[in-house]
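Shape matters. Shown next:

___
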Amino acid sequence: MGTTEQADRPGARPGPSSSTDPAVDHVDVGRIVKPHGIRGEVVVEVLSDLPERLVAGEVVRRNGVEVMIETSRPHQGRLLVKFPDVPDRTTAESLRGQRLTGPAADVSGSDEFYAHELVGCRVRDAAGADLGEVVEITFLPDAAGYDLLEVIHPDGHRWLLPTADDLVEAVEDGNGWVLVVHDAPEGLVFQSGADPVPATAELAAASQDPTEAHPGPAGAVGEQV
């Protein structure tokens, strides 16, 4: 299972995507992390699987206001982006943490999910045991090979689930989409009465190391589409 605008690919998707809902007309395509240099550039974390979203000349919404991207260039797995209305570092500093949004892509008829569709999904194991509910998505660098879903177990513990295609499958059960975990490595999936901290902490740390072996290809949790 992967993630894309932030749409995700947890498995075959037989039905239409709710991402075409007119209420969801714009989705996150990037996040401004911090200023870079003294000429107004900002570091942008890409939250889209479509590279053309954040190229020079494209128009995005920044804090709800449409702005054009003046320049855009790769930098350490992210982008350095310049906007015409940001002349210096002081102005760029004020943009820290802001989201860049763009029109939602049509993923109906595909196996992709938008990130907002995954939050709230129930998680079960192959035997049907309830493992909790997805409450948040953490987007990792492409080198990690997957993103992470934060899940709250019914007993209140939080644990992390990687969106690897060979680990997580999305199925419909009549009440919506459910994420089914298959053949999870020992210690990955939290069970009531166990201590989830070591497994989730080690997973999160390993995901930051591009040299680690990872369980599957990156999907889309996010465009991210």
In short: The chain has two domains: 7-12+111-207, 26-103.
